[in-house]
Amino acid sequence: MPSPYHWMHPSLAALQRAHRYRTVSSVTGKAGAVMVRDGQPLINFASNDYLGLAGDPRLAAAAIEAIDTYGTGSTGSRLLSGHRDLHRELELALADLKRTEDALVFSSGYLANLSTIIALVGPADLILSDAYNHSSLRTGAKASGATTYDYRHGDVDHLEQCLAAHRAQHRRCLITTDSVFSMDGDLCPLPQILDLAETYEAMVLVDEAHGTGVLGHRGAGAVEHLGCLGRPMVTVGTLSKALGSLGGYVAGSQTVIDFLRNRAPGWIYTTGLSPADTAAALAAVRIVATEPQRRQTLWHNVDNLKRRLDATLDDERKLTLQRLPSESPILCLVGNSASWVITASQTLQEMGLWVSAVRPPTVPTSRLRITLMATHTQAHLDQLVAGLASLVSE
Ligand SMILES: *Cc1c(COP(=O)(O)O)cnc(C)c1O
């Protein structure tokens, strides 16, 4: 009898042949701008820890205190034994940061997107999704059973065509978009999307995973940066990137949050966020509000690196490595081929630099992806520029 699991062998072999087989490498020591990976210290241009908070002693102290007070697990779903005052404090702090009426904390950003989409729309409804949206938004759309169309990345004209062609045939409509696109670093045209949503009576779900703590005067995200605070929309985000912890959240009107508390299966039927993660995230939200200098340093690093990359990659070398337009701490350099960016990433690693190679099918064109942190020093950036310069001059 053949094993019912046998089909996985050819599937894995196909991934290996296509150079798409994935493995993990082990990082030791505390999160930070320099990390030890597989025994080698590397300057870290590959993390989502934009403000350098994941290794901040204040987050650790808050987490340890929460464990001392409550223990490690929250022991049940929020509606049964899993709710602590700490959860509510975090939700109110997030709502305050986002200038929304309320917020709800989930176990991860992925689950927050998935559960919210499933709760908001069903088979009678329509989802219009930016073609570059995160996996959690796509999986949510699929699981909801709603009719889903991708509109061309960042293209409001195409979005309007889709609305004009399909909106009337469906009960409810939900437009979903990342605010900061994680593999490109550009922003969604949110003001125009919200205008169209008003005209066509559509809900909007915007994913601020890479915006929160990073963009906007107060660190509220791309929604603030683009002047859209207070407009009707559902905002989703994560506690695991600039906020240095683990978990996700939804911020929105009282009605939306009340509805999700009653109708989102991924909130109702899962265990409440651990006390340690909750307390660390709460400490981070307070730091985001009180230490704007972290954001300023991050943006100083972004501007500095952009200017120097453009000077370095100027002239004929531009043909080898082209910087994509970015309005975030995510800077991408498009290379000639998948094998070129993989070799480039390995060469940079030999120089002590951790820069990811991202290739199809994750993105349409192969690229080096650099993420900056507030805790990168001038010397870290100098080494990166020198490393990249040596790649293009070869
Ligand atoms: C990371 C990410 C998520 C998922 O957040 P987690 O808390 O890590 O599950 C969702 N959306 C986007 C755009 C992301 O980059």
Description:
With 394 residues, this protein is an alpha/beta fold. The protein folds into two domains: 134 residues, Aspartate Aminotransferase, domain 1; 234 residues, 3-Layer(aba) Sandwich (Aspartate Aminotransferase, domain 2). Helices cover 42% and strands 16% of the residues. It is built from 14 helices and 15 strands. A seven-stranded mixed β-sheet has the order 4-10-9-8-7-5-6, with helices on both faces. Helix 3 packs parallel to helix 11 and helix 12 packs parallel to helix 14. The longest helix has 21 residues. The radius of gyration is 22 Å and the shape is globular. The mean pLDDT is 95. Bound molecules: pyridoxal-5'-phosphate. The site of pyridoxal-5'-phosphate has 14 residues, from helix 4.
Oligomeric category:
single chain
Helix % is: 40-55%
**Count of the domains:** 2
H/E element string? Answer: HEEEHHEHEHEHEHEHEEHHHHEEHEEEH
Q: What's the CATH first level of the largest domain?
A: Alpha Beta
Bound molecules: pyridoxal-5'-phosphate
Our estimate of the beta-strand percent is: 15-25%
| Cα-to-Cα separation, first versus last residue | 56 Å
Looking at CATH, the homologous superfamily of the largest domain is Type I PLP-dependent aspartate aminotransferase-like (Major domain)
Which shape, going by the Cα principal axes?
A: globular
Level-2 CATH architecture of the largest domain = 3-Layer(aba) Sandwich
The major beta sheet can be summarized as:
7 strands, mixed
Q: Structural class of the helices, strands and pairings?
A: alpha/beta
Widest sheet: strand order?
4-10-9-8-7-5-6
Number of helices: 14
- Radius of gyration equals 22 Å
